From TrEMBL:
Pathway: Lipid metabolism; fatty acid beta-oxidation. Signal peptide: none annotated. The keyword Isomerase applies. Belongs to the enoyl-CoA hydratase/isomerase family. Keywords: Fatty acid metabolism, Isomerase, Lipid metabolism. It holds the Pfam family ECH_1. This is Enoyl-coa isomerase. Transmembrane segments: none annotated.
């Protein structure tokens, strides 16, 4: 059966070659043509974007003077950024780092919270205060969830402190790296609140231990890179920030070189399967692959594997 499948693919590739020229050349030209740098396409106040490799976008938190603490502008821009990258054909994989700041992030900007307190002080009715909070919390939740909803894989690269909202952020990413001096803290109970934008939902699934997740969230204790690696919060630990970012970009480049239909379909199904039954996950991927297996990506990838040629280059998606 596999032999018949390969034969059919070979015929399809030959037909495409006769009608439009060599497939690999066409695909390569389509893939490279009009590849725009993220720095020229995106202009955010609290984020810095660049394209270190083709189809790889590096998103850096960019509030170094405030230790990358989250203010309202950063919440808004994170949601906008990952929603736009989701649809950007020049992006296939994303690295998220703390940039040049001393820490990955110090968590919520308390100065920004004080401004919110002043705004609340101008409202007397408790129902109207609650309505304001509802809108803000939903905005912040959607901002974090934008990483998970983005079909492009997100690799978080954490150095030194990752506090509060930072844990929310990285648990919505697909892969997490950190430096040896990194430490993490689910800080919210120490400032009189329950974490409300993703950590309580995602951290137990990421580390696979309800006991440890509840200990960390209920005590707000700090935990370091060795424990983060042992429990599965991060998959690799590096001696320096430079080495970590380099390896994160290398991983993103490897992912970006594969079929975008295959990669994005894989992420979509893995995210979906987190809160669905195995059968529901199987049903979804079956419905997706009824279409995706007819893609030129499948033909090109199988032909490359069969002929042992150089890695195929895929057109934009």
């Amino acid at each position: 059966m596999m032999k018949n499948c390969v034969t059919a693919l070979q015929k399809s590739a030959k037909m495409l070659s006769h009608s439009t020229g060599p497939v690999s050349v066409i695909v390569k030209n389509q893939a490279v043509r009009s590849l725009c740098s993220a720095a020229s396409k995106y202009n955010f106040e609290t984020l810095k974007l660049s394209t270190p490799q083709p189809f790889v976008v590096h998103v850096e938190l960019n509030r170094p003077d405030r230790l990358n603490a989250f203010n309202k502008r950063m919440w808004i821009e994170l949601g906008q950024c990952f929603s736009q990258l989701h649809d950007d054909p020049d992006c296939r994989a994303i690295v998220l780092s703390g940039g040049s700041a001393k820490h990955f992030t110090a968590g919520i900007d308390l100065m920004d919270m004080m401004k919110l307190g002043q705004q609340l002080g101008e409202i007397e009715d408790i129902g109207r205060k609650a309505r304001l909070f509802e809108g803000l919390i939903k905005l912040y939740q959607d901002s974090i969830s934008s990483l998970e909803r983005c079909y492009k894989p997100v690799i978080a690269a954490v150095h030194t402190a990752c506090v509060g909202a930072g844990v929310d952020l990285i648990t919505a990413a697909d892969v997490r790296y950190c430096t040896r001096d990194a430490w993490f803290q689910v800080k919210e109970v120490d400032i009189g609140m329950a974490a409300d934008v993703g950590t309580l939902q995602r951290l137990p699934k990421v580390i696979g231990s309800q006991s440890l997740a509840r200990e960390l969230c209920l005590t707000a204790r700090k935990f370091k890179s060795d424990e983060a690696h042992a429990c599965g919060l991060v998959s690799s630990v590096f001696e320096s920030r430079e080495e970590m970012v380099k390896k994160a970009i290398e991983l993103a480049t490897q992912i970006a070189g594969k079929s975008p239909i295959a990669v994005q379909g894989t992420k979509k199904n893995m995210v979906y399967s987190l809160d669905h039954t195995n059968q529901e996950g199987l049903d979804q991927i079956r419905e997706m692959n009824m279409t995706n297996l007819q893609s030129e990506d499948f033909i090109n990838a199988v032909m490359a594997q069969q002929s042992k040629d150089e890695m195929p280059v895929f057109s934009k998606l």
